[in-house]
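Box S2. Input/output pair 1.
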Amino acid sequence: MTEEVLSSIEQQILNTLPAGRAQAITLEKLAYLLRINKKRVSTIVANLRKRGYLIGSNRQTHGGMYLIVTSNEFWETVNTLQKSVNSQQEIINALLQHEERFARM
């Protein structure tokens, strides 16, 4: 992560996210606090993560988002994302078994 200028809303999101998984905040609550819609929050958080900001998510019941502060939180986030990537790759591979039916022109 390099030093960069954040937009006002990006900075607000980072300032609002709690430190640590135990304090995770739901997408709904974060959107409510910032007075923007959930989709916009989700998009901004995804972009911040792509730029290297340590934002974790707990996908369990009543889960939420938080700033990663421990090694365990970091690796849980990485492993969760890797499982998602692997699952998506399996779907792509299964679909590609039919690619000859849909030749590109």
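Box S3. Input/output pair 2.
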Amino acid sequence: MRVELTKYRVKEGKSELVDEWVEYMHNHMDDVLMNLEGEKMFVETIFREAFNNVEYLYWYSVQDDVESDDAVSKTDLDEKHLEYWEKCIDKTFRPEDMKAEIVMIPERIKRAMNYSND
């Protein structure tokens, strides 16, 4: 199981486009959740922060270690998501991967995710 948290900087002046992106994801949540199933993504959460007049997005995820064959097929949702990504995420800022020191997931939840400790 992979547990990740990564920080990305939003391009200056793209806050309203991020609003649109977030709204798009909310409005297409059924498709988003279907994509997560195909990617063997158990949890994906996007956090937003404004600090010193700079905006950041944080991606938190809990995902199966094994990549799914379904993850390689691109959907319309994926295309739209990547389009927003290209327009909004500042590539001059090196993404910051946070280190997971402790992962606390109860056994019953691990079993529900079909996760094994092997």
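Caption for Box S3: The CA atoms of residues 7 and 36 lie 20 Å apart. The two ends are 10 Å apart (CA to CA).
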